[in-house]
């Protein structure tokens, strides 16, 4: 896999890596891990929301009236 960044992204990432004393690679991997974790959490919330919306459909309908 190749990651192509815009020039401004490349420069900002380089500066951030220098400030943190880390590699650009390490920062990108951390960002990917955070994104994937957040997406798993979002999917879990969507599934639970759908489950409880079905279970409590009548109550939600009455609350909306």
From TrEMBL:
Coiled coil: none annotated. The keyword DNA-binding applies. The keyword Cytoplasm does not apply. InterPro entries: Arc_DNA-bd_dom (IPR005569), Arc_rbn_hlx_hlx (IPR013321), Ribbon_hlx_hlx (IPR010985). It holds the Pfam family Arc. Keywords: DNA-binding. Residues 2-39 form the Arc-like DNA binding domain. One of its GO terms (molecular function) is DNA binding. This is Arc family DNA-binding protein. It comes from Streptomyces flavochromogenes. The lineage of its organism: Bacteria, Bacillati, Actinomycetota, Actinomycetes, Kitasatosporales.
